[in-house]
Amino acid sequence: MTNTINNVEFVRNLVEDNYKVNKTEVIDQYQVSFEVEKEEVHRLLAQLRSEGWIQMSYLSAIDWIADNEFELVYIVFNWEKPVYIQVRTRLDRDNPVMESIMPIHPGCKYYEREAHEYFGIEFPGNPDFHKPLILEDWDDMPPLRKDFDPRAYSDAHFSSREYPETHENTLGQESKVAQRESRMARVFKVGKGGKK
Amino acid sequence: MREMKLFLGPQHPGMHGNASVHLFVDGDIIKRSYLLPGMLHRGFEKGMERHSWVNNISLIPRVCVVEPDINEMAFAMGVEKLAGIEVPERAHWIRMIVLELARISIHLMAYGGLGGPTGNYTLMYHAHADRNTILNIFEKISGHRVYHQYIVPGGVRKDLPIGIEEDIHEFLNDLESRYTEYRDLGIENPSIQARINDTIMLPAHVVWELGVTGVGMRSAVGKAYDIRKVMPYARYDQDEFDVPTGTYSDATCRIDIKLQELVQCIGIIRQCLEKMPKGEVRVPFGKGQSMRWTVPAGHVYSVVESSRGEFGYYMVSDGGTHPYRVGVRGASYPQGLLGIEKYLPGTRIDDAALWIDTMGVCSPEIDR
Amino acid sequence: MMVGILTGFGVALFGFVWQTSLGGISRKVVARLQKRYGPKWYQEFLDIFKLLSKRATSHGWIFDLGVIMALGGIIATAAFMPVTNDIFAFADFDNFFIYVYLIAVGMLGMAMSASGSGNPLASIGVMRALTTMLAYEVPFMVIVMVIIKHAGTSSLRGIAMAQQDAGMWYMVALPLGFIVAFICLLGMLGKKPFETYIAPAELASGPMVEYGGKQLGMLFIMHEITVFIEVSLFVHLFLGGAENIFVFLLKYFVVYSVANLVSNVNGRFKIDQVVVFFYKWILPLAMIQAFVALYMNGWWN
Amino acid sequence: MESTKFSPITKLSKEEVDRKWWEIGDFFRRNSLWMLMYCTGCCAIELPPAMTSAYDMERLGMGPMATPRQADVLLVTGYLSLKTLRRVIYTYEQMSEPKYIVGFGSCTINGGIYHDSHVVINQLDQYIPVDTYVAGCMPNTEAVMNGFIDLMSLIKNKKADGWKRYKKNYEWYKKNQIDSLGEVQVHDEYHQ
Fold first, then answer.
1. Which domain holds residue C69?
2. Total number of domains constituting chain A
């Protein structure tokens, strides 16, 4: 294996010369991540594929709800020059549309379907991205968005087992409830900035 | 013959996981087939965002039930890379022992799984008997047979119990002595060879198109593409082991590669047991309040070589006490969904269950 | 006549009880082969009576009639089966072709009810059962014809007496024929190398997919008696019948456990491989044996 | 004076005769339980060691069966997502009476580690009648074998009557199922 340091250098020069890269991060000698504009993703992935980064490892999205954006991540890998390249782009959160990359990597047809189902991102070009894949008869918003609360959905739809609070004293010990309450009180006092 | 619809459905003796394959059959030949995933979906990635970094240690191994240690290792390495923790030397070697023991147990289960669809139940019984010895060793090491929660960010939960080396050595010698018997019962058995020779092919262009990794890729491309060699983690670079490869990838070649990998794992564990230094096993994280431990912001994709291929965790942290986003790249995702849709048609019904086993499709990884 | 009918039922009942207990014992033998203990020896009885105690859904009258026809046909066949030289139901009705004809009645009954159950897996299983039957019947018939030609009579007891008088079993006299017949026996019993029609991994136990409590119990009884017929047929044809009951039981036990052990170390063939295997390897062997036995009657008689 | 040797034979009423036959049937049902080969969740990884040479379930007379028609025990192993629960209900209703259910792991008792997940039900008992539970998040294989022996003793003293409960208050179960699952009808994407 060639020395991995110059692999990362090779990748950085290759990408930064021909594309407008917002941010570059070298995580370690095996991983590099680039933030690129939405329009350049296809060209970048096609060129990386021709350079040898042929395997599409992962495709998913992150929901930055604070700045109202989705972030799509494509991770490609080259077994000859072992560097994982993360290509990240930002999409607007209200109508997230991203051209499908099936012509470049046919293997990511189901990754895109899953991203659509979990985040609601449209992938025109992928023949059946809108079909339900994992969830069946799902009536709520796409579940992996940050503003979806699974606990509320679970309490609303599924009844859970109630455990009675009555702890009857079978062994004749003196009750421990008082100790428990005083300990909880101390914990809250500490929690609210009280001295240790 | 009009086209019939059959279900290699969620409830089927040939289907090991819990996914439903819809087969459109003409006579015995499969015309179209679709995998319907989602039976084992439990909102795992959403659950990760609701648990703190330390709570996730108990949720992580429950992703893929067949190889929990691979998930723990990938999660631990990711968190260490984000937080910049340096794991003590002995922990590296203990992690390698646990990972390789897990790899032996998975290969035994996969080899025993070959007995199910082909009908040779004796092979399945023998393989599961040996796998159970490994589970007992794991119970001694970590207290639980299947979900160990043993590899944690910062090293290993606690040191190996005293006297575990003898158990491991005894098991390895016993397994090695019966290796030829295993080969005769399975791969050299003419009635099973009739089922797996020159069938269920995986040509090289399909490997690149689907993104198949691991044994499938190594058996088709012929190069030693193994993450333990290409991107060595946890002292794999200080161990001598070679990676078996092949170019003509039919079911026999893939199963043969798995058996040769089994032998390599035995060699790795023996070297680890000798080279393991004494000393610390774990670096504590989060100065006492481990529930409020925060990991600095960043993106990382940590990868581990599982028995079925490249198993990756894509982790994003925004500096809080909870992971912001965790994506799991299952090793059998490409073969499972796209592979079954494009490359299962054309085989017979009897080969469907065998196709799913030898390709290593594991449905909990696909649904998460 | 009445005595004949009663002994006929006696033989069928004996065949069922003996084969079921032998099935339990052979499950323990196979368990030891697989490094475990295995069930109680009377486990097969427990399974059958448990099935008979359960309520089950019925898929129409063809489904139920077929099961009754299958069980009736098989019990009728077992009634004609001679156990030893002097224990038999009907003196001159133990002709070989009676068994071939009556077994077909049982098998067709089961095929009719399986396809009546409406499950596509069951119909595929039935198709496979008939093709496997086609595959192993032809070589078996060739060998049996040779035996009948040589023994001069086609009555089972006659063949057994011929072997006992000559003191030379057909196993030794027709070695190739013995091997061919044993492999065909594996096919008849539905043992592992040729078990494609009840393959759980592909067809979820083939024709027996839709059978529930009582029907499945009756099918299990039918299967046990079928195994009894086939193995005792094999014993009479090749191992020279039996003078007394213990010799018969011993020969039966040896043949059945050898077939069981062979089957438990082999995988399953696919359906086309089964037919190709029989017609490419077993049929020529049977032909060679027939040619040697009929035209080159030199060295052994 | 009547002879004390032959006490008059008390004429058993019809119910007692049925109960006697049912007890004999219970003996056979208890000693030859057939489990359904259906790995619904992640606790199913403890079944192979239980079935094979390590713990050998066949000693208890249990064996895996291929289809719901032939099986009498449905092992609900592990958590149940909505999709799996629809198919488990389908399978349960196909099984022949008398049928039993064993719930594996804490996910069938109270949702376990996925109690806050939007796809996993929290309490299996609301949807199908469960006869006995095996606790533990992945119960140990010994616990699995103990669960089977518990089921056998339940059958012995006639407490394993889940299928009777299901028949008696069928509407209650159906209402719970419809509330949580929307509809129990299974129509997949590829149903033509």
1. 2-295
2. 1
